[in-house]
């Protein structure tokens, strides 16, 4: 009696007792107090009943069991077992109450009136109980009444408890089958495990030649296969196939059970294909299922189930091979299976679900909307007829969600999509964590969430889509055939998120997983074309981000293969053609190949022509066609092309729903083509229509911020032509306010750069428009502050002084610090590959950063509600800006296409001076000339400095009252903040540098630079490190006299001299000195505690990604010390005083579209926490570096280590060098401190010594 938990020794003693001894034992334990004694009493009474057929003791056992269950808490771990004991007792009492006339009798067995039952009566009763249980199980199969199944299980368990020697293998097998059915209905894993155990016992106790052995083996196979479906154990599945195969082999050809057993074998073979991808298993499954159908009579009660299985495997084979015959047969057979299943049959819902799957699958191949509508209808009926607590309900809900989502994809019905997400969510929520189908359901949910983002623009949906798709991949075994599709879907979600946020990590991972999906998909698989298409999309996106022509060529190659392997009549062909057209068009833009452009137009046209009129993707394909027609117009001037571009773009807009997030982008494109036609024809109607398109696009609230910014600029440009400055200014101001949302804190810095590059110059045109609209100079200046240096501003917010907050609200300060530390970690370095980390763990890191960013924003908003903190982390107000100019003025030089101005900030006023001599076009030309002349070795510096004096510096200094040269050594100071490309030019060196001339900046003021006024304020608020005493602070000295691995200028003869000079001065500066190991990690470690950092060596500017600009140490090839490394360090708590970067181009940012972000080595040192930084705009002379550094450090020695002394020291050094106070000789060393340019051979025109020009000071 396995239900009871009685010690084996005690059970053995009780079994050996006589009836009298048992009665006495029971009497002694008649009033037990604890659970163990209660169970012992019930056991003893039931044993007495079995031995003596004593109804009295059976009733006592039942009564005591009922009371025992009643006092057991519902959450007690043993309640289920105790309830089953009570159920067995109750069933036994119920059976004893059945009239004798209903009890089955066996011929030859009799019983005289008044006698105790004969010994064989036990066998009769056992068989009666077994038959009664079987009838109840059959009733359940017909009606679905769970009560019948539960009673059947209880009665069969009772029969086995009572049976002893009368137990037959068939009874065990039947109990296993009943437990399996109950698992199917309730999902109880205990039932399933018991079903396998009992079925195994049935097989073990059945003789090899027993006629029931095949059926019993088949039943065991079913239980094992079912357990595989629940647990994913491949061993169970293999055993299921093996034992069912044996069952088939030992079943006679004409045996009535052969068809059922064959069908079961086909089912498990098909299931094994789904797990392993073995096409042999699938073909055998179809073959065996077909034979099972052929040998099943038309009126057989199981024929519908056997047909259903055959339909499943035909549909599955279609998905693997693409055979349209298979899917047509699958639909026909699944329809017959449903039609021959009674309306009230419990399996009808499952067969409806399968029919829906076949219809939906055929739609995906043929595009028949009737099939898709039928799929939704039958799946809906399947859901409606499935009980809420049925374990199969999750699967049916999942299927309904799939066909609703697919219908949305075809019709654009947002209601279908919302229902798809809802049903898929419920399916996931009701699927156990360890269920093998959970990954599939997560995958589907991710698909529909990603699709809803594309329709609504909800970033929450997109993040959830990536999250659940990652979990789907992680919970799918490496060798599972569905892993490729789940990788593909994850890649899609990551690609979509990259397009929305700009995260290059997302895009690289998308390419990784899409590549794996393609590589692990057989060449002849019908889904391979889709995977190739998606991989092409991702590669194209990376080309757009990085400019890699290899990525673009690969994208075209995989897109071409996708087209070649897609049947002409396949509904996906139009999308694949459209994508191939896009790739070719982009290659034209890169290479100028007119053949590529013509093919792009051709493919885009075919894609539009083969897309149904009512298809929701038609607008997208029209938009693409318009783009390439417009591009071809730009190349050929064909008026027909631009007319067609306008027409198809108009239709694309008209067929895009008002609330669709892509509507704004399509309106932007329409406006572009109208604008081009206006330029060609002069039609004012086109100009007005273009303006209307841009304005309407700006009003689309679901569009991404980057698209809104693009539309605002386009609209403002037309309004500027019409002199509508008020409206233009308002739009640009709103666009500037969107910039922080384009580059959230959670995004890594490289991604922020890319996103902000799209909005280059926005703040400058907004400020110019504001001035033209008559707004105050302070208002325009605040727009510049808000829209420039966005990345640095976010870092300054997190790294600023919060001592006031700590004092007033320590709890808020602690929360601020915690979130700041999460966000200020170097996220750029948290990117694992798909092979060495789970996707969901990587996504969880990104998710934590996004959540921290959201909480940080909410916390800042909360802090601003506290008295005294209303302006916490807001851009500086007008009074704060003026306070920053006390005692010396700040000059912000704004460069825009509308107008150019100098904002002059003094301690008591902010004024603006328009600079009519400064033009955007000329600045672009001068900056290009400067770069070119440096590269070619013909350096024209004098004209540039003279032009800067005339157009910017002279009028500005005059307006500030700096009209005359300084003669008494009482120097005033100006902080220069140039915008745009002006940041590449030396405003501090502007002037007419001829002997005897004083018309120069250098002779009127000392110059310092700042990236922004906010940066200046931030730097001043960082507390100065208190020295513990003389020589407790030290200078960190790095001299790279020889840079290994450098092709040119490997040796810098004077780098060692420069550092030795400083080392000799350290004692007089009251500093110690330290020379570290010349490797990145060691240098970064010592930066934490130094007072001065002096680097003499090579610098390297990266024009493509300024975050990768670096100082070259010994390990520069494998681990360069980059802007990104320095920016990610936070030294504000112990900020060093001075960083002296005696290397080339350390203050240069040659990435034109990131000019306003000020991303260079000098600014990186400032962001890390250095109070002052000396750097250079371009190449510097190795020999003169020694003398410039010496003059600066001698000034610090003589005047003290003060803020003004740093500026004065550099000013003295460069004036002396200019005035040839430092002797100028022709360079004998032939070296310049640049890793890529050798400047010493340059021919410097019209100035004897230009080596002083590139030196700059950034500091407070």
From TrEMBL:
Residues 943-1245 form the CHAT domain. It comes from the Eukaryota. Residues 822-848 are annotated as: Disordered. Gene3D superfamilies: Immunodeficiency lentiviruses, gag gene matrix protein p17, Tetratricopeptide repeat domain. Residues 828-844 have a biased composition (Polar residues). SMART domains: TPR. This is CHAT domain-containing protein. It comes from Podospora didyma.
């Amino acid at each position: 009696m396995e239900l009871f938990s009685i010690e084996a020794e005690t059970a053995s003693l009780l079994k050996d007792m006589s009836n009298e001894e048992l009665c006495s034992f029971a009497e002694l334990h008649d009033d037990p107090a604890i659970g163990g004694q209660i169970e012992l009493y019930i056991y003893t009474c039931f044993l007495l009943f079995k031995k003596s057929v004593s109804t009295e003791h059976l009733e006592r056992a039942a009564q005591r069991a009922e009371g025992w269950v009643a006092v057991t808490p519902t959450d007690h771990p043993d309640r289920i077992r105790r309830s089953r004991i009570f159920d067995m007792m109750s069933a036994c009492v119920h059976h004893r109450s059945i009239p004798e006339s209903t009890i089955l009798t066996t011929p030859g067995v009799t019983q005289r009136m008044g006698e105790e039952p004969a010994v064989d009566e036990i066998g009769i009763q056992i068989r009666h109980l077994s038959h009664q249980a079987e009838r109840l199980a059959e009733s359940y199969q017909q009606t679905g009444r769970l009560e019948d199944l539960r009673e059947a299980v209880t009665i069969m368990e009772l029969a086995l408890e009572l049976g002893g020697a009368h137990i037959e293998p068939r009874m065990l097998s039947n109990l296993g089958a009943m437990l399996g059915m109950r698992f199917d209905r309730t999902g109880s894993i205990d039932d399933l495990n018991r079903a396998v155990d009992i079925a195994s016992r049935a097989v073990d106790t059945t003789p090899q030649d027993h006629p029931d052995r095949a059926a019993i083996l088949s039943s065991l196979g079913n239980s094992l296969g079912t357990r595989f479906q629940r647990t994913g154990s491949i061993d169970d599945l293999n055993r299921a196939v093996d034992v069912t195969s044996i069952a088939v082999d030992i079943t006679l050809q004409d045996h009535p059970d052969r068809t059922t057993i064959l069908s079961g074998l086909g089912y498990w073979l098909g299931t094994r294909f789904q797990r392993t991808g073995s096409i042999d298993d699938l073909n055998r499954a179809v073959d065996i299922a077909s034979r099972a159908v052929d040998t099943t009579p038309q009126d057989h009660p199981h024929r519908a189930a056997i047909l259903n299985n055959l339909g499943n495997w035909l549909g599955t084979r279609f998905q693997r091979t693409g055979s349209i015959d298979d899917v047509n047969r699958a639909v026909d057979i699944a329809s017959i299976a449903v039609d021959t299943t009674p309306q009230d049959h419990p399996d009808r819902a499952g067969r409806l679900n399968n029919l829906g799957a076949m219809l939906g699958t055929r739609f995906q191949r043929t595009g028949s909307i009737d099939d898709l509508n039928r799929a939704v209808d039958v799946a809906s009926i399947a859901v409606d007829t499935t009980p809420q607590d049925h374990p199969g309900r999750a699967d049916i809900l999942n299927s309904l969600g799939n066909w609703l989502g697919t219908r949305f994809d075809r019709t654009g019905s947002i209601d279908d999509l919302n229902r798809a997400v809802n049903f898929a969510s419920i399916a996931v929520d009701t699927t156990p964590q360890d269920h093998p189908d959970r990954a599939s359901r997560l995958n589907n949910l991710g698909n529909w969430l990603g699709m809803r983002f594309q329709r609504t623009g909800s970033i929450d949906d997109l993040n959830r889509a990536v999250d659940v798709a990652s979990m789907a991949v992680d919970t799918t075994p490496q060798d599972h055939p569905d892993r490729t599709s789940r990788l593909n879907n994850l890649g899609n979600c990551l690609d979509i998120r990259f397009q929305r946020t700009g995260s290059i990590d997302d895009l690289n991972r998308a390419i990784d997983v899409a590549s794996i999906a393609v590589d692990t998909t057989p060449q002849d698989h019908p889904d391979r074309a889709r995977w190739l298409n998606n991989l092409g999309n991702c590669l194209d996106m990376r080309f757009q981000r990085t400019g890699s022509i290899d990525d673009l060529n690969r994208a075209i190659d995989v897109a071409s293969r996708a087209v070649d392997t897609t049947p002409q009549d396949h509904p996906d062909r139009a999308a694949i053609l459209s994508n191939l057209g896009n790739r070719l068009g982009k290659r034209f833009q890169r290479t100028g190949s007119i053949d590529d452009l013509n093919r792009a137009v051709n493919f885009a046209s075919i894609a539009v022509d083969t897309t149904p009129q009512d298809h929701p993707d038609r607008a997208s394909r029209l938009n693409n066609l318009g783009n390439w027609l417009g591009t071809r117009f730009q190349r050929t001037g064909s008026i027909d092309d631009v007319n067609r571009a306008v027409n198809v773009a108009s239709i694309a807009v008209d067929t895009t729903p008002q609330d669709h997030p892509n509507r704004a982008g399509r309106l932007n494109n329409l406006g572009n083509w109208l604008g081009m036609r206006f330029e060609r024809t002069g039609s004012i109607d086109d100009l007005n229509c273009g303006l209307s398109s841009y304005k309407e696009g700006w009003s689309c609230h679901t569009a991404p911020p980057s698209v809104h910014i693009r539309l605002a600029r386009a609209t403002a440009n037309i309004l500027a032509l019409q002199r509508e400055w008020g409206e233009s200014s308002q739009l640009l101001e709103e666009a500037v306010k969107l910039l922080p949302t384009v580059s959230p804190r959670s995004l890594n810095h490289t991604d922020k750069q890319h996103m902000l590059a799209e909005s280059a110059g926005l703040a400058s045109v907004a400020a110019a428009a504001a001035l033209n609209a008559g707004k105050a100079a302070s208002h325009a200046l605040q727009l510049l502050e808000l829209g420039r240096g966005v990345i640095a501003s976010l870092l300054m917010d997190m790294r600023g002084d919060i001592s006031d907050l700590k004092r007033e609200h320590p709890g808020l300060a602690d929360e601020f610090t915690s979130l700041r530390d999460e966000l200020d970690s170097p996220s750029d370095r948290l990117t694992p590959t798909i092979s060495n980390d789970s996707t969901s763990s990587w996504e969880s890191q990104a998710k934590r950063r996004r959540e921290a960013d959201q909480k940080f924003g909410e916390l800042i908003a909360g802090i601003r509600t506290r008295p005294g903190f209303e302006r916490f982390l807001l851009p500086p107000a007008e009074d704060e800006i003026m306070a920053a100019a006390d005692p010396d003025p700040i000059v912000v030089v704004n460069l825009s296409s509308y107008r150019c101005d100098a904002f002059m900030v003094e301690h008591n006023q902010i004024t603006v001076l328009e600079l009519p001599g400064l033009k955007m076009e000329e600045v672009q030309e001068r900056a290009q000339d400067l770069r070119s002349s440096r590269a070619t070795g013909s350096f024209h510096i004098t004209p540039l400095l003279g032009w800067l004096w005339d157009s910017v510096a002279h009028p500005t200094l005059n307006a500030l009252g700096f009209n005359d040269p300084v003669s008494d050594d009482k120097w005033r100071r100006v902080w220069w903040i140039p915008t745009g490309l002006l940041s590449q030019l030396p405003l501090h060196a502007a002037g007419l540098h001829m002997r005897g001339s004083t018309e120069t900046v250098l002779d009127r003021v000392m110059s310092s630079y700042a990236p922004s006024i906010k940066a200046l304020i931030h730097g001043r608020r960082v507390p100065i490190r208190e020295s513990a005493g003389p020589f407790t602070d030290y200078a960190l000295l790095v001299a790279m006299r020889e840079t290994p691995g450098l092709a040119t200028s490997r040796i810098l003869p004077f780098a060692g001299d420069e550092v030795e000079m400083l080392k000799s001065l350290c004692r007089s500066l009251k500093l110690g000195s330290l020379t570290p190991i010349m490797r990145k990690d060691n240098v970064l470690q010592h930066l934490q505690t130094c007072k001065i950092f002096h680097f003499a060596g090579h610098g390297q500017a990266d024009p493509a990604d300024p975050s990768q600009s670096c100082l070259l140490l010994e390990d520069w090839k494998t681990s360069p010390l980059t802007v990104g490394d320095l920016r990610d360090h936070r030294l504000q708590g112990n900020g060093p005083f001075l960083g002296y970067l005696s290397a080339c181009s350390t203050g240069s940012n040659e990435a034109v579209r990131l000019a306003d972000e000020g991303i260079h080595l000098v600014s990186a040192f400032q962001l890390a926490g250095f109070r002052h930084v000396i750097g250079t705009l371009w190449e510097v002379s190795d020999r003169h570096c020694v003398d410039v550094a010496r003059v600066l450090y001698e000034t610090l020695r003589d005047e003290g280590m003060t803020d003004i002394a740093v500026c004065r020291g550099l000013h003295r050094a460069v004036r002396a060098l200019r005035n040839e106070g430092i002797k100028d000789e022709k360079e004998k060393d032939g070296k310049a401190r640049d890793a890529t340019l050798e400047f010493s051979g340059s021919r410097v025109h019209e100035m004897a010594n230009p080596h002083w020009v590139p030196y700059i000071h950034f500091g407070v």
